[in-house]
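Quick start: what a row looks like.
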Amino acid sequence: MLISSLQVGAKPYKVTSPNGRIIATLSLDKTCQLSILLDGEELMAASTIDLTLADGKQAYSQAKVARSKRSSINEVIEAPMYRQASFTFKANQLDLKLQNGFGLIVLATDEGVAYRFYQTNKGATTIYNEVADYHFGADRTAWLAYSTNKEKPMAMAFQNIYHETAIGKAEDQVAFLPVTIDCDKAKVTLLETDIVSYPGMFVRTNGNSLKAEFAPYPKKMDYYRWRGMSYVKETEDYIARHEGTHSYPWRILAVTEDDTQMPLNNMVYALARPNKIGSTDWIKPGKVAWDWWNDWNLRGVDFVAGINYDTYKYYIDFAAAHGLEYIILDEGWYDSNKANIMQPIDEVRLPELIEYANEKNVGIVLWTVFNVIDEKLEEACKHYAEMGIKGFKVDFLDRNDQTAIEMVERLAAATARHQLLLDLHGIYAPVGLNRTYPNILNYEGVFGMEEVRWTELKNDMPLYDVTFPFIRMMAGAVDFTPGAMRNGTKEDWAAIYNKPISMGTRCHQAACYIVHDSPFTMLADSPTNYEADEPYTQYIASLPTVFDETRILQGKLGEYIATARRLGDAWYIAGQTNWEGQRELTIDFSFLTEGKSYQAHLLTDGVNAHHDAEDYRISTIKCNASTKQTIHMMPGGGFVIKLKIEN
């Protein structure tokens, strides 16, 4: 990092991206304001950013600068279990230290702008509010995922479809991040990363702007009888409190001129704290045979299927036969109403089940509730790690106040100490903690496959499926839980809780395994449903979950996406489309190694998939770098292509 001095007190301050196209301008006059230009065109007008302190004063308004520094960053970041094995991060930044003990860093990359507040005072600090009033304009279109809890809007699972709306016409309710705004020349996406002992951000439309809101600091907690889940009963009148020096979250305004850039934006990961756990060799990503989505349904067996030893033994056998690395014991392996994670039910015969799974080389992951494991954290981690459990799926956090953020980091650190992986559910979108603790393999925070058990047709999932990879996936991996074997067209889909049906074709489901960043992903349907269609099952079971490189070949937010991922010298391509008619894509294979011949195994919508969404076709072709292959997708359809060099 190269550092040079600036003239102290210079106003305004400009920070320019390495390619010179993006300029962030910071003003510390009457108020602290930030604006963003791309090629001289305004993306975000001057917008107030600040911290409100205990005395009601703003930390950055009319602040005097004690010291300013500029620096350039050029770093190769290793990224285990990320969408690519490594990447280069380049940025220019300005660091302003104020006379009042606070400071502000503004950073510009070719991917966008970020800023963070910090504090050098060593005493106790209470933050009553953080001000962020982002001025984009009332007529600009935003994609907002609103809270699903109108009574307590900051207590929910961070799962909703996107509402595409002009900012000036948006609903008067909070939306959770990420949020994308179409600024004509480019899209700007609001993200956050590196949150330590501080709440996450929500936004609400405010005329021509998006204004930040934050969950207050919890004052009193209570418990729901069901699951022993804790919730905030009373709150303080401030949002955060801490001791000593502190770095506040990075606020990211990612800039993308083409939609295909969106799923590849690396700012959340790059600006997070580096790996704190050391070696990641013990962390094993992979695919999971999962019980809950298919309601423990097994056919043709000689035992009663359910939460018991024989059922899970069947899941283990299925996983072993198809090369799946894990099974999950979801809710029910301990009595949720008693909320005692240390007491498995007798029917599961957990020690015996672990022994059987070890013989089959299949790992077991246990479901639990965030506060339930947190209240016995060291005991539970030590006990289950010694038993041979590989990790936890942790559910129902449903908040992002300061104490919730602190709980997640506690869990990440403790499980890492005991070499246990984490799959986080009922939680906000990733905020970079998976870089700091790479044992966090996946996050929910997505309107995933579970929703088809109870949602309505108006919550158009094929549309959502070609929307969230451009927005939500900018933050990081998604645990969408794909793999439905019962698939419906728009005309025949219905919500069925016990035997759920996906919206869209079976190939649309298969494409999830490549389109999604998802190093720990489910085969969500019943083992016996998969066994009834071995060619398809073997195809999806053979797909990797981590890759060396990712490219978005084609795509448009809300319409379609085509993703290519490389692992070694093999390539995997997949695409999905919305429900609005049939679509043809021509895939250009020019990214393949020149002079090499490849065998391509294609999984595509069948000619009758518009009528029977389960119709598909597997075919094989030879191709090379000069090949162009046309793919036909039915409404709500998809495809997958596996490419391997011929011997």
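That is the whole record. The chain has eleven helices and 38 strands. Residues 564 and 573 are 4 Å apart (CA to CA).
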